[in-house]
Structure formats: C-alpha cells, structure tokens
Write a structure and sequence with these properties.
This protein has 212 residues and is an alpha+beta fold. 48% of the residues lie in helices and 13% in strands. It contains 7 helices and 7 strands. Strands 1-2-3-5-6 form a 5-stranded antiparallel sheet, covered by helices on one side. The chain has a two-stranded antiparallel sheet with strand order 4-7. Helix 1 packs across helix 2 and helix 3 packs antiparallel against helix 4.
C-alpha cells in the first residue's frame, strides 16, 4: 500500500468514481460529475489535525459567476472521519468512503435529473438564504413557471443585504425577473452566465445545454 495517504484516497476514488464518469479536478481530492449547467461535487476533505478524510458530496449550480466549487445543496456526509495515522485498514476505509461517495452521487443524479426535481427540493426543504431563492427562481423560470419564478426573485432582497455580493445578487435577481417572461432571452442569458462561470477553472462544454 502506498505510504502517502493522499495517494491511497486518490487510488480508491479513481477505482470507484471514474467508472461513473466523474473526473478528478487537477491534483486535488475533488471529483466532479459534470452536467453542463450544474455539477455534483465529491470532496475527500482533509483535516487540519490528522491525516485522513471527511466526505463532502453536493450540488453546485453554475448559474452565477464565481460559484464554481460551492456546495449549494448538500455538503458533509454523515460518515466518520477516516484516520490514516497508525491505521492498518486505511486502504479499506478509503475504499468504503469512495463507495459511500458513489451512493451519494447516484442519489443526487436521480433526485436532480429534472428541473422539477430541483424545484421540488427547494419547495419542500424551504429557502433560508438569498441563494436558495435565487436558484429556485432560475430553475422555475427555465421550467416555465413564470409566476413562481418572479415571486422567488422578489424574495431575494428580503434576506440580509449587508455585503457587496448580497447586493450584487439582488441586482442580478432583479435583472432576471424582468426577463422571466421572455423565455428565449432568459435562456440565452442563463446560457451566458453558465459559460462565463465554466470559464473559471472548468473545461469547455462542447454540446448545447439540456434543461430537462
């Protein structure tokens, strides 16, 4: 077994996640399931105190510039930290963590396979942040629920608007609110946002975006 615990984690992730179509992000411990305008992220998160890994899995919407790498839905998976220090079973533990990541990816693929699945998540779970209202509104508008989208866009500035990024988000929501009834213009605007977002550290998307 390699002595480098990072190499062990990478080896097990490659064995389990690569056949699913996930791609490792550079030389990091992050693996990406790329769906064009959204991704599922798997992060074998290191600890500041011990060699090993936590597991984070979640959705990253590419619907706002600069959002690459964020966990917009999900994050820490409820599994114990696997500790490489003095562990003779670390390779087995890493394999088990990769298998759990696979399970989480498959669940998210199913749950968010359609626009309705994404909208349903926000409808059921509630929207506690301005980001939640923003992404919910975009998904609704893409899906053709203009009234619902406008209501969600209007909710964005009802959250705290203290920092510059919060005010910028509210401004973007107001701009998209105006476009919501013009589907062609709205989709083209979202397409531009996605392409600009992908240009920050992600490969080019060669085909057209599919909004199922």
């Amino acid at each position: 077994m390699p002595t480098d615990h990072n190499a062990v984690i990478t080896s097990q992730a490659r064995q389990v996640l690569k056949p699913l179509g996930l791609v490792r992000q550079g030389k990091s411990r992050v693996w990406i399931d790329d769906h064009g305008w959204w991704t599922i992220q798997v992060e074998f998160q290191p600890s500041s105190w011990s060699k090993g890994s936590y597991l984070n899995v979640g959705i990253n919407w590419l619907l706002y510039e600069g959002s690459v790498g964020a966990f917009n839905i999900g994050s820490r998976v409820d599994v114990p930290f696997i500790d490489a220090t003095g562990s003779e079973s670390f390779e087995q533990d890493a394999h088990g963590l990769a298998l759990r990541a696979k399970d989480e990816v498959e669940k998210l693929r199913t749950q968010f396979a359609t626009l309705e699945g994404a909208a349903s998540y926000y409808r059921i779970s509630g929207r506690r942040r301005a980001w939640d209202d923003y992404y919910y509104a975009v998904v609704l508008a893409i899906g053709g629920d203009i009234a619902g989208a406008r209501a969600a866009f209007e909710s964005v500035p009802t959250h705290r608007m203290q920092y510059g990024w919060e005010k910028a988000l509210a401004q973007r929501a107001a701009e998209l609110h105006k476009l919501a009834s013009n589907r062609t213009a709205f989709i083209e605007t979202i397409r531009g946002i996605v392409l600009r977002t992908r240009s920050i550290g992600m490969p080019e998307w060669e085909s057209d975006f599919v909004f199922p």
